[in-house]
Design brief:
The protein is of the alpha+beta class and 187 residues long. It is built from four helices and six strands.
């Protein structure tokens, strides 16, 4: 499923409100050393990869309901939202925010920061219980100069920042899709 379609499902089906999408498309030449044979060079002439992240606003006072809503959406949609009520850890996170259970990763581990869907995507969020010491979703890197075909960067809407979303909604959720290598020319 294309990244835009996945983001549209998240926006339509979950309690999250889409605020910003960042797409980076980069092509690089194979000049780096190989990982296991440091004397050789990469086996490709050109490799192109794309990364996509979407930022959503949410009400920090409704964390349990928001994450539970994501799980319910996953129950309905399947793969575009890889988290559902069968995911034990995700249910433990909901219980944590409802005050029914302790730290989901075990005593002393503190507030959770993300759910990982393995190879499909990761959902992360601002910590809301940790006060000023909590981890917050960072601003995306600024788009470097547009240099087709080597580098493209798209930020929609260009004027929106993570800080803007946090001011408007109270907190930020982010879905990150794995980097996709979509084109390779081998040596």
């Amino acid at each position: 499923m294309a990244s835009r379609d996945v983001i549209a499902v998240w926006d339509a089906e979950t309690p999250l409100t889409l605020g910003l999408v960042v797409l980076e498309d980069v092509c690089v030449g194979g000049s780096a050393k190989e990982l296991f044979l440091p004397t050789g060079s990469d086996r490709y002439k050109i490799k192109c990869m794309m990364s996509v992240a979407a930022y959503f606003g949410a009400d920090p006072r409704r964390m349990a309901d928001t994450i539970d809503g994501v799980l319910s959406a996953g129950d309905r949609t399947g793969p575009p939202i890889p988290f559902n009520h069968e995911f034990h850890y995700a249910r433990a996170v909901v219980d944590y925010y409802r005050g029914k259970a302790g730290d989901p990763q075990g005593p002393g581990t503190g507030e959770p920061t993300h759910l990982s869907g393995g190879t499909t995507l990761t959902l992360s969020w601002d910590q809301v219980r940790s006060g000023n010491t909590g981890q917050l979703i960072e601003e995306p890197r600024s788009c470097s100069p547009h240099e087709p075909p080597v580098r493209r960067c798209l930020r929609e809407p260009a004027s929106t920042s993570v800080a803007d979303l946090r001011r408007e909604y109270g907190m930020v959720f982010k879905i990150t899709m794995p980097v996709k290598n979509y084109f390779t020319v081998w040596k």
